Structure to design on (599 residues):
């Protein structure tokens, strides 16, 4: 039997009482009135208001940056203001995170995001979707985070292989001003290749569309919500199933909004549902709309809080207002004397003192561990994502040089997406290195024959530029013609099919992360349990001051141009044509140029 909602209108209850007094069969009438699906929780003609406040992809940024931008203390003040404003206007607020609270800032990483989660408790988050970075560490860490949290982690499409049951709650249901709101969580299936395979080897990330439809059917049967929201970590226009393709696949009216994350997009559309160009913090904007479903995402790192004000009346949901609220974001201006000044785009938000008191001890403890000097660099090393995911990088070469030396390998390879930040010039601390490599992967190696190595390199070289799996190589050279590698060299010498080579990489890629061939089950696989950050730290300590010129990419890696590929294909076809000629045809073909010459 369905329980009446807290805010169920008294008039609806009185109507049931009238039926009971006028009709015979009182017991039967009561059963009909309370049967799930026949009871109406909302009052016809009455307008219900509620507000969604949302963030995504915080990635450990619980503390403000050097310019005093974002951070949970300012976010707490802003969230409180928005919640009180919504309540003053007769509505209720719901605070949602679309995931990826983990990984990105060393102070958070080494504490397993405890300050972030406890800070979210203080803000009053109601639910969080599971992002792929929630699986960067073992499931035992994730379970500990769930214990810290006073809000549910939800994911309808994450299952345990062993028993076929969901690992997390699929949804959470909330009552706001008499309105029943269900929030379904979704995690990206790409987690299987983005997270360490060892952490997710016993999990299934099922199709988000079919799992959303399944959850909707279960909700209709069990909860009878008035409004359904999807809290998604799929990305806006990411490859594969994303928020847009999900919205297009769902029945119209089945879901009111998709609150998203993963792609770090600041979704801001104009009235024609086109992206706003040159958006500035505080400018007006709207969510994307696909198949009648609003799609929202608030950038990254807690730089913005999205606010969506909804109105529900007679079974229909409408969007009354939408804003992206900047959290102390600033822009730089130059003074006449040449000095620079950082000015806020909007009115300064005063950090919440209770939040500062909560977070400061975490920050201080982490700083004590991380401000240890490890070396220096004469120049900065570039680890920006638009470099390491597209072309060979000096910072990746530095990392691979350290791993090659540590394992006494002939060559090394890693995902470009494993480089998370640049390395500054000047004094280097452990914190600087942790920003570059925050995942604590182990440095491993494997022995492969030349034939096996060629197969491995061919598979890795196919991973497209722009993805996190884009390969960074050291100690190897080759020419890539489509999906074929030729002229492969190791340490400057041609690859020999029967020779044995040692390849260095990290445990993430070795176990199949980012779509790499799995090599951790090879007979020649070796791991000494040493982390990538400790290997990099030792290298920096012994080779400081670092000089960027010493880490120029070694071994020529060249991809044939389309014109070169076309010429190569023509040459191949001509060669095949000549091979196919019969003996008389071959003789005639040999005389043909002579005949043409004399004519």
């Amino acid at each position: 039997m369905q329980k009446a909602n807290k805010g169920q209108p008294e008039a609806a209850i009185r109507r049931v009482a009238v039926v009971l007094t006028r009709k015979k069969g009182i017991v039967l009438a009561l059963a009909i009135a309370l049967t799930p699906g026949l009871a109406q929780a909302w009052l016809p003609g009455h307008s219900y208001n509620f507000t969604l406040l949302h963030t995504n992809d915080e990635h450990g940024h619980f503390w403000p940056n050097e310019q005093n931008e974002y951070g949970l203390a300012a976010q707490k003040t802003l969230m409180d203001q928005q919640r009180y404003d919504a309540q003053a206007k007769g509505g209720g607020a719901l605070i949602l995170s679309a995931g990826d609270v983990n990984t990105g800032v060393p102070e958070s990483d080494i504490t397993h995001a405890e300050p972030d989660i406890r800070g979210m408790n203080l803000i009053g988050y109601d639910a969080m979707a599971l992002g792929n970075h929630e699986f960067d560490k073992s499931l035992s860490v994730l379970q500990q985070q769930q214990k810290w949290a006073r809000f549910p982690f939800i994911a309808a499409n994450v299952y345990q292989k062993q028993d076929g049951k969901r690992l997390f709650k699929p949804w959470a249901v909330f009552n706001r001003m008499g309105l029943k709101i269900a929030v379904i969580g979704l995690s990206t299936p790409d987690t299987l290749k983005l997270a360490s395979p060892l952490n997710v080897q016993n999990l299934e990330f099922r199709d988000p569309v079919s799992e959303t439809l399944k959850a909707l059917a279960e909700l209709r049967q069990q909860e009878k919500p008035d409004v359904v929201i999807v809290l998604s970590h799929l990305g806006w226009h990411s490859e594969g199933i994303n928020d847009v393709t999900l919205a297009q696949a769902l029945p119209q009216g089945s879901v009111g909004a998709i609150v998203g994350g993963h792609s770090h997009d600041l979704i801001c559309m104009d009235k024609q549902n086109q992206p706003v160009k040159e958006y500035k913090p505080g400018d007006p904007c709207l969510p994307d709309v696909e198949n009648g479903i609003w799609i929202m995402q608030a950038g990254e790192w807690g730089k913005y809080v999205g606010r969506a004000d909804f109105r529900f009346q007679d079974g229909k949901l409408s969007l009354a207002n939408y804003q992206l609220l900047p959290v102390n974001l600033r822009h730089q201006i130059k003074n006449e004397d040449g000095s620079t000044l950082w000015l806020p785009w909007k009115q300064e938000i005063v950090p919440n003192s209770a939040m500062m008191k909560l977070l400061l001890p975490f920050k201080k403890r982490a700083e004590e561990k991380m401000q240890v000097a490890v070396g220096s660099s004469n120049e900065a090393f570039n680890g920006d994502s638009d470099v390491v995911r597209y072309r060979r990088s000096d910072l990746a070469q530095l990392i691979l040089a350290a791993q090659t030396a540590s394992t006494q390998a002939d060559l090394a390879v890693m995902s470009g997406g494993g480089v998370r930040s640049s390395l500054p010039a000047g004094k280097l601390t452990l914190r600087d290195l942790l920003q570059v490599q925050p995942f604590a992967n182990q440095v491993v190696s494997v022995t492969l024959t030349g034939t096996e190595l060629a197969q491995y390199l061919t598979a890795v070289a196919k991973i497209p530029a722009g993805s996190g799996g884009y390969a960074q190589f050291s100690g190897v050279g080759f020419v890539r013609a489509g999906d074929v590698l030729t002229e492969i060299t190791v340490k400057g010498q041609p690859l020999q099919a029967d020779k044995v080579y040692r390849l260095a990489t990290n445990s993430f890629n070795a176990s199949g992360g980012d779509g790499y061939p799995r090599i951790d089950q090879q007979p020649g696989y070796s791991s000494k349990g040493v982390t990538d950050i400790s290997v990099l730290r030792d290298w920096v300590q012994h080779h400081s001051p670092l000089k960027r010129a010493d880490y120029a990419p070694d071994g020529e890696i060249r991809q044939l141009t389309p014109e070169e590929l076309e010429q190569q294909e023509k040459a191949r076809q001509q060669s095949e044509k000549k091979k196919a000629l019969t003996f008389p045809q071959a003789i005639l073909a040999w005389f043909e140029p002579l005949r043409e010459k004399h004519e």
